[in-house]
Design goal:
By secondary structure, this protein is α/β, with parallel strands linked by helices. It has helices at 4-11, 49-59, 68-71, 151-164, 207-218, 231-242, 256-260, 263-270, and strands at 21-27, 31-36, 39-46, 75-78, 82-92, 103-115, 141-145, 174-178, 186-187, 190-191, 199-203, 222-225, 246-252, 276-281, 288-294, 299-301. Helix 5 packs parallel to helix 6 (231-242).
Amino acid sequence: MMGIEELRDMFKEPLPAWERVQEIRVRIGRPVLFRTDDGELELKISADRRLLRELLGILSKHSLYAFEDEVRQGFLTIEGGHRVGIAGKTVLYEAGEGPLGAIKTIRDISALNIRLSHEKKGCADVLLPYLYNRNGEVESTLLISPPGAGKTTMLRDLIRRISDGTDYGPGLGVSVVDERSELGACFQGVPQCDLGRRTDILDACPKAAGMLMMLRSMAPGALAVDEIGTAADLEAMRYVANCGCALLATVHGAAIKDLEKKPVFAELMEDRIFSRYVVLKKKPHPGSVAGIYDAERKEVRSVL
């Protein structure tokens, strides 16, 4: 990731403390915005195409072609595990070129969302007493939060703690299917984040297929995925649960009732695939716990 000094030189303005920055929004014709733990900072500089080109050059180490597969998905993951979202004009495959109608690449890039990866070791410790049963086994757990409320950061630390072992249970083999390279933050196949000594990562693989692959190949005690949402995800999780493997996952939502309104998640709850639901909120800080619930959605612990 570019250094703070490079950004200061580029923007010619003082910037907030690096560890408090969550994301940087750069849009052509608009002010550069920094979203921090304390709110939003708008720089005086207005982004133009030259600035975007310079930023992409720095972020990709002037080898954007090396990220071709990621760019067509609308993002690239760079060294340090930071994720850069991309918006612009999509180019589709035509007949004879590839999958007809599929995205070939993105050009005329007009906006970047640089999401900084932060490891907050220990943030999941507050959950641990509620996520193990009396036999020291991990309960299948779904983390629910709106965007920016810390669900990925919380899941990352939860994986680390379960993998290394806690006061509530021994270390467990954990398999991670990291479709968007956000949990392990792999760069050239090497995880940039600490997910524990007993963790195996399948990077850049679709969740539904990856869950079955890891279950069969790595025999995990727990399997973790970020941002579930499709019927295919549900079918894979049902298979994993029926094999006796604990599940750790996240989903967008502000409360359990938000999930009950969606057919896929209503079915997931009815099947009791998860025995713990943890609702996170942004205030007073990202990762704050609003409540912990059991399989019947009865409160195990309210605000922590």
